[in-house]
Design a protein that fits this description.
Length: 522
């Protein structure tokens, strides 16, 4: 009969959960490989990251029970990744909380996912001025990393140094690939945020799908400044490099526009992930030599502006690869690559993802994109029904996810996005894309920022409202640009509202919920 030790050492193990995949990466790329660093500029090896993971996992297991959802309110940093892996190793589910959300948003997240404990850091809470938010939360216990470290006793250290780090597979709570791996929360860009449950299978499948078409190398180094509570920052920006043997630099804020280009230069980074908004600011503040080592710049989470693409190409000679996805798909659905690139599209759909287009009345080309695959979420958690998992289902059938985006797919499989179905206004019976209104404004005033919304109108159903930072913008300027650009007259907004800045969410997306409220009052 085989002993427990023999099982730990020799039993075949598939990377069917996140922690297991991490152990595989450690074995493949070597425990002494330097793999990750953050603003402390300490390069951690796989072995050191494993020790941090095991230690935090053991300490947190005393304050929780298996399968419990634990809130993680942390910046993009090495300890945050160790927390995620440690919770996974102990069979707990990290719920990544958006610290830029308001008290109501955080409370709704905790209620929907039944979060009773939140892990954070005193230093981070103080620096980000989150004391008031955390103090306002009800029925939630706050644990701080600084206090947890003091709980690490002699027996814990002996367990870690003498046993766990040598037999890391023996101390794990094995998870079924279908069980929850992480809970993320939608950005709330068009409504109340929802908890999105992603299984181990979904996360690992999406990473495999991305690596199947993009030639990331162990010689690369990723610079990730995107928030780790966002699916783009978590899967593509953090987990993909760690599980693929790619060195990673984590930076806590994407808003430090002057610092990030300097880090890219100083740390010789070759891969950068970002949103169109963030990439625009980096380019404006960067020296042309800051990004000389970059091989890949991948944009997602929002529409990539043509002016941003042009700026990067003219200033740095770099072509930005635009991708497309959703939190519910872990997140990547499609992406352009050097071998398969088409301007104006978001690339080809990743392997292993099925697609269906459902027609929309009033729109002649394309339809609403529905997707199905191993990377699709397990379901939603809503504050209205705490703990109830609402499994994905759409007009296409059970297990399908309705993206809400109107797209066309050409004969070669390239996806072109017309806009979100919720971002169309019906004016005098005609469907008008709010995104096309924004493009019209951008063509008239490319140096400023613009966002379109709508308000109810008794005579025409709805009326367009344009928010702009251009104080010189007038309707006749838009009309002239519309005539030269071939836009219909009905797409020219009658109401123009001047703002100092377009409201954005912590993820860099335009905050259309706030804009909708502003439009109603306009």
């Amino acid at each position: 009969m085989r002993t427990l030790l023999q099982k730990c050492l020799f039993e075949s193990r598939r990377p069917n959960d996140l922690y297991g995949a991490f152990l595989d990466a450690l074995s493949i790329y070597g425990s002494s490989r330097k793999i990750i660093e953050d603003t402390k500029q300490i390069e951690y090896t796989y072995r050191q990251l494993l020790a941090m993971t095991l230690g935090l996992g053991r300490l947190l297991s005393r304050h929780s029970v298996p399968s419990e959802a634990i809130g993680v309110l942390m910046p993009t940093a090495v300890p945050t990744l160790a927390l995620i892996l440690g919770l996974s190793a102990q069979g707990r589910t990290p719920a990544m909380l958006n610290f830029t959300a308001g008290v109501d948003g955080l409370q709704n997240a905790c209620e929907g996912a039944q979060i009773k404990t939140i892990i954070s850091s005193k230093a981070f809470v103080e620096q980000a001025k989150l004391e008031a938010k955390l103090g306002a939360l009800k029925n939630v216990r706050i644990l701080y990393l600084e206090d947890l470290k003091e709980e690490m006793g002699l027996m814990d250290k002996l367990w870690l140094m003498g046993y766990a780090r040598y037999f890391p597979n023996c101390v794990r709570v094995k998870s079924d690939p279908k069980t929850p791996c992480v809970i993320l929360f939608t950005s709330g860009s068009e409504g109340k945020p929802k908890g999105v449950v992603l299984s181990h299978e979904a996360i690992l499948a999406n990473i495999a799908q991305i690596r199947a078409i993009v030639d990331f190398s162990t010689e690369d180094k990723v610079l990730n400044a995107l928030p780790i509570f966002h699916s783009f920052g978590l899967t593509a920006g953090t987990l993909l490099p760690i599980l693929g043997g790619i060195r990673l630099f984590l930076y806590p804020s994407p808003l430090h526009y002057r610092v990030i280009p300097e880090i890219a230069y100083d740390r010789s980074c070759t891969i950068l992930f970002g949103t169109s908004t963030f990439l625009n600011h980096y380019a404006l503040h960067a020296h042309p030599y800051d990004f000389y080592r970059l091989r890949y710049v991948v944009a997602g989470a929002e529409k990539l502006s043509a002016s941003v693409k042009e700026l990067w190409f003219e200033k740095f000679g770099i072509r930005i690869f635009e991708g497309y996805g959703a939190t519910e798909t872990a997140p990547v659905i499609a992406v352009n690559t050097p071998m398969a690139y088409r301007s104006g599209t978001v690339g080809q759909v990743l392997p292993g993802i099925e697609t269906k287009l459902i027609p929309v009345p009033g729109i002649d080309e394309g339809g609403i994109l529905h997707v199905k695959g191993a990377n699709v979420m397990s379901g939603y958690l809503r504050a209205e029904r705490p703990g109830f998992l609402e499994k994905p289902s759409s007009e296409a059938g059970e297990g399908w996810y309705d993206t809400g985006d109107i797209v066309t797919i050409d004969h070669e499989g390239f996806v072109r996005i017309a806009g979100r179905v919720k971002r169309f206004a019906k004016i005098a019976g005609e469907m008008i894309s709010l995104e096309s209104v924004e493009k019209l404004a951008l063509s008239a005033s490319p140096a400023c920022y613009h966002a379109a919304s709508s308000q109810s109108d008794e005579s025409r159903g709805e009326a367009l409202v344009l928010f702009t930072t251009d104080k010189e913008m007038k309707r006749d300027i838009l009309q002239q640009s519309a005539r030269s650009g071939g836009y219909p007259e009905i797409a020219v907004p009658r109401k123009i509202v001047y703002v100092d800045a377009i409201p954005v969410l912590g993820t860099g997306k335009t905050d259309y919920v706030t804009l909708k409220a502003m439009a109603a009052d306009a």
